[in-house]
Design goal:
With 314 residues, the chain is an alpha/beta fold. The protein contains eleven helices and 17 strands. The strands form four sheets. Strands 12, 13, 14, 15, 16 and 17 form a six-stranded mixed β-sheet that branches.
Length: 314
């Protein structure tokens, strides 16, 4: 009898591998709740099929491609916090509440006003809000930072039971990547590339996240030699003079207007400048498109077309 009871208990517990997610099943009835262990060690019981999700984590694009429309989102346009990011503004409900940008402070009152049955919080920003948020509704912390979009997508797909939709979307994304690789290979021919963002007194060189992840890891473009090891967020600040040790054949440039690279002798001596292989995007493009799933689709087309158009002209 004891063995039968033990077997019954074991069969009632389903652990979703790699996510710290446990679903509970009461006998033959469909599962209604699941227990999540958050990165802060807190256990939280959340609904299996939440109807009113408030997303504070920057994961709204991932939710949408999983077929879920949040009632509140912190995926505001990086260039204009009053509106949603261009990738999602036409996909959300008319009454979706704009919580601002996920990397900045979010109003607890605004979250409370939508009466969510699940709150999704990011792992880097607004952690001090957790206790307040958890009193409003069950609060899940996505255990991956904003720049790990694939891991975030995988976690949410398992949490919300939409792994099949996730897999199907990733197949579409990989097909687009393969198509662009084929188009760009005759142009790039194994030459090197760097991704740089300018600031008033220094530069940021990206090497493993965002736009850099797209070009190096997805498209397989060769990283320029001399790029320093990145910090945890995927890039590192360097002085302008540091460009002389990188010297790529091609350059993706996010140039802020207050710091024009053309004023520098180091800049004019670079191979990419002399070959006119400069592809400009804005830092708004970088934050709106490079760290999220739907945005990556947009950025892939944008960068691919920039490279094609530049070499059609030459």
């Amino acid at each position: 009898m004891r063995n039968v009871m033990r077997l019954a208990i074991v069969c009632c517990i389903l652990v979703l591998a790699g996510c710290g997610i446990t679903q509970t099943n009461g006998g033959k009835e469909p599962s209604k709740q699941q227990v999540i262990v958050n990165p802060n060690g807190q256990k939280v019981t959340v609904p299996i099929n939440p109807k009113r999700i408030a997303d504070l984590s920057g994961s709204t694009e991932e939710l949408l491609l999983l077929g879920i429309k949040p009632i509140a989102s912190a995926n505001a346009d990086y260039g204009d916090r009053k509106v949603f990011s261009p990738t999602i503004k036409d996909l959300l409900g008319k009454d979706t509440v704009n919580l601002g940008w996920y990397g900045e402070a979010i109003s607890v009152e605004a979250v409370m006003s939508v009466e969510p049955d699940l709150i999704i919080l990011g792992s880097l920003f607004n952690q001090e809000m957790y206790d307040q948020l958890s009193k409003i509704a069950p609060t899940v912390i996505v255990p991956y930072p904003y720049y790990e979009w694939r891991n975030r997508l995988d976690f949410l797909a398992k949490l919300l039971g939409e792994v099949e939709k996730k897999d199907k979307w990733l197949e579409t994304y990989e097909s687009k990547v393969a198509a662009w690789k084929k188009k760009l290979e005759p142009i790039l021919q194994g030459e090197t590339l760097a991704v740089i963002e300018t600031y008033p007194k220094n530069l940021v060189v990206y090497s493993s996240t965002g736009t850099a992840e797209l070009v190096y890891m997805d498209l397989g473009i060769k990283k320029a030699t001399g790029i320093p090891e990145p910090e945890a967020w995927g890039g590192i600040q360097i002085a302008l003079e540091g460009l002389s040790t990188i010297n790529p054949d091609h350059l993706i440039l996010m140039e802020n207007s207050e710091n024009k690279m053309s004023d520098s002798q180091v800049w004019t001596n670079m191979k990419a400048v002399q070959k006119k292989n400069i592809y400009k995007i804005t830092n708004v493009d970088n934050y709106n498109y490079s760290y999220t799933a739907l945005g990556r689709m947009v950025l892939l087309d944008k960068l691919g077309q920039l490279i094609l158009d530049k070499h059609k002209q030459s």
